[in-house]
């Protein structure tokens, strides 16, 4: 497989079928709807303007292009939205390295000739983000080729394979045409997505949050730092924000909405589903630094007469996140808290055992206005994973999970 | 009650974005600035005052442009140059920036050495200790906290206004000279053009543009909040140039008038004020110089390291460990060590070197301005926030004037053999 490099192909001479110099290479273009990595065409700068030369008319690439068509037959370039141009859209731009989980800048692009297909094609193998690409770009044309290649060979390459590169495009229409869906990005852990997004400029951040699936966007948004969360939300439409907020953990969503100006929060609440909206409105009424401000309404509560079997069934249909099922709550018909059962005990018990026999002793709970410091103390003292929150009538209103407590403690460290 | 809430929001908005423009403008009056303005006043009396108004105008325009670019694009200046003009162009700008900033760092340590010598501390003690302090503040991540201290200390600059008044200048002469440029023949005076370029270079330093845009981006100023940061920039620039005006006037009224035309060391600038303007002015001068130099010494090397790393694609950030961002830490550390090291050379003409570093600023400035002017007029980058025609005229005029002045300066130097 012969290897090529974008910076060396750009500016190289293009000979037409008759052997005459038709122009110089200006761009390499990929048509993402057909193939994400294959070079579909070249853009050649001629005396008469830019011309598009499809790859299938290229006979050879060796220090220059040889085409099988006549230079008069080359079509003028018009309308470029469906094509990805390597020099304009990739070189020197920021892209996401989904394997390394960070944002990098492209110094050069590596290509290879794929002999495996029936007709030889030129494909992108990866982007160079290291010193080798940088030095090649800097010294190209200034230092004679043999010396330059000798120097470059000694520098270890830092290449990101093309399949790990996620492009960022701020124009929504173009995103569709270039088939940029951030599928690969979505596979990463939300915290890693948040890290990556924090490194991008506002327009790029907005582009990513508009494209990601709501569930992924919600999880990632929860992990982004508060100031940036606000900035991202401000740049999105209210209905898009509502979609994302509905997928977020209620406590994180309430924190986020609480930071926004009232009119904005109203707009977003209007766009939400009625049930989710109701939960949000209730949570938003509480103060932030107390138990109620931290709690979630996504807990699992069962009647105190339930058996282990009932509990497992209800867990199967539970829609909340994993951190909200570490403890099951038992209530009476008025909603009063009767007991808590850790998940570990449920796993080890027989299906027909009554839940009441597994409750943790003593029953620990706190009030909605309990300050953060006391909440943390309770978690520490009783080694809790979840702490139920009750009102004056001892009725269950919410629960605080351990990950929230850790966030609070970290902000004080 | 709604109107109250709205004006409270507006005030809070203003206070939230205040900072970048104000800080940048105040760091502007660093050792290089103070010593260049002092020399200007001592050597030429009021003859350089007329430059203050055009320079302030140009400064406001240039700073506003980078603040606008930062708010609209959300990217730093070196990032924009990289994305629009490629690696090679960025590389040359970065090399130019490192050279001028190195000169500036030398000037800051000259200021630290000079100001503490006025209290009898030898430069062999003050410089290494300050270098270590500066390095630690940043690397140990306490910069944010310290920034607030420096900012408050910036108000010490008002002492220059006090010193200026205490020096009993000829007010009418000064005010006339502020609006009326001297006769053409005066321009040909030896050293006048040199100091002119230095004055522009120290007020509109290239590094400030990169620093301000990066600060605006880091602060997360958006297009909507941008109006408030415009005021931040304007007020900062006016304050800094008012202080500069007073420094020139103070030295003109004391040193020039009494024939002390050449400041050979920082002691001369301060000591000369002593018998003529009482003990008070002398101590204030030293404190002001020390604060300014230390402040700038904390910002400059760090800002340079960030700018270069971002432009060339290296890992950067004080939140990263040394092994994760080696180039960043090395560049930062080297700038401090080399800058401080140069100052420790015995017998070094501190003032001459300081002023030279500011002249280098002035020489490199037009090249940075060209990139800025090109970028800010790109519609696909700035949308509806491209430059107005007035702004474009001011920027391009400044660029052309500075290139012309530099050319004449070099020509004079080559011809005069000197």
Summarize the structure.
The complex is a heterodimer of chains A (413) and B (418). Chain A is α+β, with helices and mostly antiparallel strands and 413 residues long.
Label this structure with key terms.
heterodimer, A: 413 residues, alpha+beta, SH3 type barrels, MgtE N-terminal fold, CBS-domain, 8-stranded mixed beta sheet, 4-stranded antiparallel beta sheet, 19 helices, 21 strands, elongated, B: 418 residues, mainly alpha, Amino acid/polyamine transporter I, 0% strand
Task: Explain what you see.
The complex is a heterodimer of chains A (413) and B (418). Chain A is α+β, with helices and mostly antiparallel strands and 413 residues long. Chain A has helices at residues 6-9, 86-90, 131-139, 145-153, 172-177, 183-186, 190-198, 202-211, 214-223, 226-235, 238-247, 250-259, 262-271, 274-284, 291-294, 308-316, 343-348, 372-382, 402-412; strands at residues 3-5, 13-15, 21-30, 39-46, 49-54, 58-61, 64-67, 75-76, 84-85, 94-97, 102-105, 108-114, 121-128, 159-161, 165-166, 300-303, 327-331, 337-342, 366-367, 386-390, 396-401. Chain A has three domains: 1-160, SH3 type barrels (Roll), CATH 2.30.30; 181-285, MgtE N-terminal fold (Alpha Horseshoe); 294-412, CBS-domain. Chain A is built from 19 helices and 21 strands. In chain A, strands 2, 3, 4, 5, 6, 7, 8 and 9 form an eight-stranded mixed beta sheet that branches. Chain A has a four-stranded antiparallel beta sheet with strand order 1-12-13-14. A three-stranded antiparallel beta sheet of chain A has the order 11-10-15, covered by helices on one side. The longest helix of chain B has 47 residues, at 266-312. The mean pLDDT of chain B is 84. Chain B has one domain (25-415): Amino acid/polyamine transporter I. In chain B, α3 (31-44) packs across α16 and α11 crosses α16. Helices cover 79% and strands 0% of the residues of chain B. Chain B has helices at residues 2-17, 20-27, 31-44, 52-73, 77-117, 123-139, 143-153, 158-166, 171-179, 184-187, 192-203, 206-219, 226-256, 266-312, 326-343, 350-376, 379-382, 389-415. Chain B has 18 helices and no strands. At the A-B interface, α3 and α10 of A face α5 of B.
């Amino acid at each position: 497989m012969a290897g090529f490099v974008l910076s060396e192909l750009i500016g190289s001479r293009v000979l037409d079928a008759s052997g005459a110099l038709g122009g110089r290479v200006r761009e390499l273009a990929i048509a993402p709807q057909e193939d994400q990595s294959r070079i579909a065409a070249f853009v050649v700068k001629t005396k008469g303007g830019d011309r598009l030369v499809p790859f299938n008319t290229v006979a050879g690439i060796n220090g220059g292009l040889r085409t099988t068509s006549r230079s008069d037959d080359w079509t003028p370039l018009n309308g470029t939205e469906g094509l990805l141009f390597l020099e304009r859209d990739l070189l020197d731009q920021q892209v996401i390295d989904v394997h390394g989980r960070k944002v990098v800048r492209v110094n050069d692009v590596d290509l290879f000739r794929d002999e495996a297909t029936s007709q030889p094609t030129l494909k992108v193998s990866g982007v160079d983000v290291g010193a080798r690409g940088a030095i090649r770009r800097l010294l190209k044309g200034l230092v004679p080729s043999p010396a330059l290649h000798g120097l470059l060979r000694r520098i270890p390459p830092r290449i990101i394979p093309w399949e790990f590169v996620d492009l960022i495009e701020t124009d929504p229409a173009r995103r569709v045409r270039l088939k940029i869906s951030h599928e690969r990005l979505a596979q990463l852990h939300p915290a890693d997505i948040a890290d990556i997004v924090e490194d991008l400029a506002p327009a790029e951040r907005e582009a990513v949050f508009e494209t990601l699936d709501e569930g992924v966007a919600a999880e990632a948004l929860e992990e982004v730092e508060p100031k940036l969360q606000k900035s991202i939300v401000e740049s999105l439409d209210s209905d898009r924000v509502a979609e994302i907020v509905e997928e977020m953990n209620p406590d994180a969503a309430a924190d986020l909405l609480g930071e926004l100006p009232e009119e904005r929060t109203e707009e977003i609440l209007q766009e939400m589903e009625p049930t989710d909206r109701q939960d949000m409105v209730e949570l938003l009424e509480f103060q932030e630094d107390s138990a109620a401000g931290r709690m979630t309404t996504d807990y699992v509560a069962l009647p105190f007469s339930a058996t282990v079997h009932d509990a497992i069934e209800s867990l199967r249909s539970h829609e909340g996140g994993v951190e909200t099922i570490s403890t099951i709550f038992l209530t009476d018909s008025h909603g009063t808290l009767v007991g808590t059962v850790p998940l570990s005990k449920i796993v080890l018990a027989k299906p027909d055992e009554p839940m009441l026999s597994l409750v943790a002793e003593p029953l620990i709970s706190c009030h909605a206005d309990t300050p953060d410091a006391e909440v943390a103390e309770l978690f520490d003292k009783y080694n809790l994973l979840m702490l139920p929150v009750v009102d004056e009538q001892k009725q269950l209103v919410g629960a605080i999970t351990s990950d929230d407590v850790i966030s609070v403690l970290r902000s004080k460290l | 009650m709604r109107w109250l809430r709205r004006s409270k929001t507006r005030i809070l908005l203003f206070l939230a974005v205040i900072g970048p423009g104000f800080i940048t403008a105040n760091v502007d009056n660093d050792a290089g600035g103070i010593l260049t303005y002092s020399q200007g006043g001592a050597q030429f009396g009021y003859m350089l005052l007329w430059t203050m108004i055009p320079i302030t105008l140009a400064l406001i325009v240039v700073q506003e442009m980078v603040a606008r670019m930062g708010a609209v694009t959300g990217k730093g200046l070196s990032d924009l140059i990289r994305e629009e003009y490629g690696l090679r162009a960025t590389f040359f700008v970065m090399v130019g920036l490192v050279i001028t900033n190195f000169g500036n760092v030398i000037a800051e340590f000259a200021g630290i050495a000079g100001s503490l010598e006025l209290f009898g501390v030898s430069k062999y003690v003050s410089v290494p200790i300050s270098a270590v302090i500066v390095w630690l503040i940043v690397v140990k991540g306490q910069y944010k906290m310290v920034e607030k201290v420096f900012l408050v200390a910036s108000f010490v600059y008002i002492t220059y206004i006090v010193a200026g008044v205490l020096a009993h200048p000829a007010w009418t002469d000064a005010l006339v000279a502020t609006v009326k440029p001297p006769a053409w023949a005066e321009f040909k005076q030896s050293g006048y053009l040199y100091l002119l370029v230095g004055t522009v270079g120290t007020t509109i330093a290239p590094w400030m543009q990169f620093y301000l845009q990066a600060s605006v981006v880091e602060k997360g100023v958006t297009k909507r909040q941008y109006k408030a940061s415009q005021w931040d920039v304007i007020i900062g620039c006016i304050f800094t140039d008012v202080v500069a005006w007073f420094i020139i006037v103070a030295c003109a009224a004391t040193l020039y008038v009494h024939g002390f035309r050449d400041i050979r060391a920082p002691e001369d600038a301060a000591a000369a004020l002593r018998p003529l303007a009482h003990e008070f002015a002398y101590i204030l001068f030293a404190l002001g110089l020390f604060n300014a130099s230390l402040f700038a010494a904390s910002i400059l090397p760090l800002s340079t390291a960030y700018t270069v790393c971002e432009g060339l694609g290296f890992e950067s950030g004080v939140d990263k460990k040394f092994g994760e961002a080696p180039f960043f830490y090395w560049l930062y550390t080297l700038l401090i060590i080399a800058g401080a090291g140069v100052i420790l050379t015995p017998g070094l003409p501190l003032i001459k070197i300081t002023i030279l570093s500011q002249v280098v600023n002035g020489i490199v400035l037009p090249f940075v301005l060209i990139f800025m002017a090109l970028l800010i007029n790109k519609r696909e980058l700035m949308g509806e926030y491209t430059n107005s025609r007035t702004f474009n005229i001011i920027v391009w005029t400044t660029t052309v004037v500075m290139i012309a002045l530099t050319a004449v300066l070099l020509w004079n130097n080559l011809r005069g053999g000197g």
